[in-house]
Amino acid sequence: MSLIEPRVLKGFRDFLPPQELERRNMVEKIERTFRSFGFVPIDTPALEYTRILLGKGGGETEKQVYRFTDQGGRDVALRFDLTVPFARFTAEHRSDLPLPFKRYHIAKVWRGENTQRGRYREFTQCDFDIVGSAGAGADFEILFMMQKTLGALCGTGKGAVTIRLNHRGLFNRFLESLGVGNKSVEILRQVDKLGKTGKDGVHTLVEEITGKEIAGKILDFVSLGEEGDFDRVLKKLKAAVGEGEDTRRLETVGKYIKETGAADSFVLDPSITRGLDYYTGIVYETFLNKLPGIGSVCSGGRYDNLTGLYSKEKLCGVGSSIGLDRLQAALEEIAGPGPRGYADAALACTEGWSAGKAQVLAEQFRSRGITCEVFLEIQKPVQQFMAAEKKGIPWVIIPGEGQLVLRNIERRENREVPDVEAASAIIAPAAIPGHV
Amino acid sequence: MSLIEPRVLKGFRDFLPPQELERRNMVEKIERTFRSFGFVPIDTPALEYTRILLGKGGGETEKQVYRFTDQGGRDVALRFDLTVPFARFTAEHRSDLPLPFKRYHIAKVWRGENTQRGRYREFTQCDFDIVGSAGAGADFEILFMMQKTLGALCGTGKGAVTIRLNHRGLFNRFLESLGVGNKSVEILRQVDKLGKTGKDGVHTLVEEITGKEIAGKILDFVSLGEEGDFDRVLKKLKAAVGEGEDTRRLETVGKYIKETGAADSFVLDPSITRGLDYYTGIVYETFLNKLPGIGSVCSGGRYDNLTGLYSKEKLCGVGSSIGLDRLQAALEEIAGPGPRGYADAALACTEGWSAGKAQVLAEQFRSRGITCEVFLEIQKPVQQFMAAEKKGIPWVIIPGEGQLVLRNIERRENREVPDVEAASAIIAPAAIPGHV
Predict the structure, then answer these.
(1) Chain B: nearest CA to A197, how far in angstroms?
(2) Residue A114: count of CB within 10 angstroms of its CB
(3) pLDDT of amino acid B293
(4) Minimal CA–CA distance to B380: which of B357, B355, B359, B407?
(5) If residue B201 lies in a helix (H) or strand (E), which one and from where to where?
(6) What is the distance in angstroms between the CA of the first residue and the CA of the last residue of chain A?
(7) Is pLDDT larger for residue A353 or for residue A252?
(8) A434 vs B159, residue with greater confidence
(9) A 100-159 residues with CB below 8 A of B?
(10) Residues B184-188: contacts with CB within 8 Å, 24+ apart?
């Protein structure tokens, strides 16, 4: 029989244990933080009616979506984000959802994108939203949870990220004051390119829409964030466009930020516009301080009508999304590969070995929080040490008469210990019960 | 604009927070046990080349698979199990996988099945395998890990499940001894229906293949497991077919089972055949002692050629699969809905509330391992208590001058405490640091 070449589709990938361990580790940290805030998980189908996912139909998205006719003749598609399914979910289960509803959803999405820019056609999104609360307290909670979550992921707590925020209304009012409010969509689209194209490039692009003088004013406005200090930037913004609902909202959010002592992580930046997204209030992007060039790893904002396509009821909300794939790549670039051993220890397979007795001994380590593989093949010690090294397992436990020998793989040293208790203290001191 | 009716496809479903919390709780317990044994996670794409997934093509499967042509003209399909992708994965990454390779994979699969029997078209599988180890130690490790995992899920440890095991070779040898070895596929298919169809029904079906006399002997043979005791059943099986590699393997596995003191959970049952699956050695199914009628919640066996479609190298293995959806439904039926509160506590929103200060206070609880939602709307206390009740949150924390008031939602009682430390001890005594 001829063999089939084993390969994945272009733009798709496997996760081998080191990557998948790191990924699950990230998801666990994210979920722990979300849950600590009382956010709860939901899940929705990967496959939905195309009419529900595409709604009124959208040019770019429509081209990218994986769409087909199923066995029952239905026009179906794989979800391309978690926002549209969440809107459908909220409209469908409205009466079962206690408002304000704080949910998260970590799941794969699919887009048949051009893969040349290092993008994947299958990737994981991690969305979190508060629906049904219009106040600045909800805006702030999302921002604060972003800071906590990314701090936990970067392992450095404060100082890990800079969250740059703005308010959509502010920019719109400014454009109106310049008499170009009717061109705001095109202008927003160009200003959103600041990170990639740079100031001069954007100046040229905006000039084509508004003429030279107004383009200069717009570029000055979006550059105000460079000053840094939140209050000083807010003052300048007020001077430029006057007080409004937007400046008052930013002022309140700024007050909350100061109250939590998290001011170092936040910058008021009028250049943040989130392009053509459906946001209507505050918007924000998040940059890793050690690798800002990779772009935003967590972005979002406030919207005023989540379920409009499916329901007459207007539900406002505020939310954000972490791009897990980009973030994982960035954290690897910053910190290098993490500690990705298959287990804390392996139990060697020696003369007179019995799988039952080996598992009983291994369970004594496992019950102390130590992950412990049982080696299954009788081999020379050096081969078992090599097997442990390949799996990144730092210790091999060799059972003996009335004692245990611990092999430290990295240092190539053996050490005798009297019992499991003593061995556990050496292998993972932090995992001993009562000392967690 | 006309509204789109929000609904999911037939056979698909949403997971609302109570179900999804329970589901994540289950997955966490499963993963913790797997990891404690040194098993590591992998992931593969949801979408693959149809040629890879269907291989030589298989009647029933082919009809059920979600298959289509993608934007690039490729014939692609959604995975319908995790076994085929694992075979492709193993062949493709063979040189990066340290053997024996112990992996797990928890992910969704899709089958356009008839949904009448309460089956879903999207469901979660949880597969775990040891590849590259031919010995009884590997067979036993999978069985032992099944017992540990299901014990953890059922919360009762020992006595939660019965794992019924058999060896394919034994049944085949028996059929050969009766002179019907050439009809083993059809006979296996009928014997596999024992659980659904009952003894008499299967007798009739087998009789059509083998005639009355032989059918009687086959039914007697597969009924030997009813005796219970492992050794006694093994003795009878040996008497029926003589010693062989299969009885020696079962004997060794039985010895390991006794060494771990887990004998209560295992039954040697010659009626377990796993129908037409590709197993070649031991096979097993797992039943919940409190709800055996729901069928097997975890099944598997040993196979001798995982990657045959994609590689010349023969890789044997042994593995098992938990059907998470069926198991979740069963556990709910046994125990009723679990404790599925959105959080341990909620911080009330009172006069003079500020989101920043509220989050600072909430963080003091969160840092003690207590999940704490911050309520965002100033409302009468009774309304906030009702909001907590809706979310299954047992405690509401009401901040006051130099003290805190704790509202117990279920008992409708208030209690004053001096500080966060005292409040934490009441809300979740087990979560206080140092006392975990």
Answers:
(1) 30
(2) 10
(3) 86
(4) B407
(5) helix B194-210
(6) 55
(7) A252
(8) B159
(9) 100, 102-103, 108, 110, 112, 122, 130, 133, 135-138, 140-141, 144
(10) B185/B276, B187/B218, B188/B273, B188/B275, B188/B276
Nearest CB to A342 within list B40, B310, B346: B40
ipTM for this prediction: 0.93
Helices (H), A37-167: 50-54, 59-64, 83-92, 136-154
pLDDT over 80 at A429, yes or no: no
Q: What residues pair up with A287 in beta bridges, in sequence order?
A: A162
**Among the listed ranges A390-394, B29-33, B111-115, B166-170, which one has the minimum average pLDDT value?**
B111-115
Q: Are the beta carbons of B38 and A5 separated by less than 8 Å?
A: no
A309 has a chain B CB within 8 A of its CB? yes
Which pLDDT score, from 0 to 100, does residue B287 have?
Answer: 94
Angstrom distance (rounded) from CA B266 to CA B255: 12
Computed from CA positions of residues B363, B365, B371, B375, in that sequence, does the dihedral angle turn out positive or negative?
negative
Q: Which residue of B has its CA nearest to A22?
A: B41
Residue B430's closest chain A neighbor by CA?
A434
Q: Mutate which of B44, B47, B130, B230 to test chain A, going by most A C-beta atoms within 10 A?
A: B47
The C-alpha atoms of residue B227 and residue B116 are separated, in whole angstroms, by: 36
Q: Can you give the pTM of this predicted structure?
A: 0.94
Cα–Cα distance, B278 to B318 (Å, whole number)? 11
Which residue has 């009441």 as its token pair?
B426
Give the closest residue to B258 by CA, choosing from A353, A354, A362.
A354
Binary contact (A17, B103; C-beta < 8 A)? yes
**A18-57 pLDDT per residue, tens:** 999 999 999 999 999 999 999 999 999 999 999 999 986 6
CA of residue A306 relative to chain centroid, distance = 21
| Cα dihedral across residues A132, A137, A140, A142: positive or negative | negative
Give the Cα-Cα-Cα angle A373, A378, A382 (nearest 5 degrees): 80
Q: Smallest Cα–Cα separation from B89: which of A293, A14, A158, A356?
A: A14
User: Distance from CA of residue A68 to its chain's centroid?
Assistant: 29
DSSP letter, residue B38: T
- Taking only the tens place, the pLDDT of each residue in B191-220 is 888 878 888 899 999 999 999 999 999 999
B 171-230 → A contacts, CB under 8 A:
none
For each of the domains in chain B, give its residue range(s) and CATH number, in order of start: 17-335 (3.30.930.10), 345-431 (3.40.50.800)
Decide if A6 and B92 are in contact by the 8 Å CB cutoff: yes
Q: Region B259-273: what's the mean pLDDT?
A: 92
What is Dmax (Cα atoms) for chain B? Answer: 88
* pLDDT per position as a tens digit, B22-52: 999 999 999 999 999 999 999 999 999 999 9
Taking an 8 Å cut-off on Cβ atoms, the answer to whether B4 and A310 are in contact is: yes
HSE-up (13 A, CA, CB side) for residue B212: 0
Which contacts of A201-210 are long-range, i.e. CB under 8 A and separated by 24 or more positions?
Answer: A209/A180, A209/A183, A210/A178, A210/A180, A210/A183
Q: Which residues of A touch B24 (CB under 8 A)?
A: 31, 41
Q: Which of A44, A64, A137 sits opposite B14 (nearest CB)?
A: A44
* Residues B166 and B254 sit within 8 Å (Cβ to Cβ): no
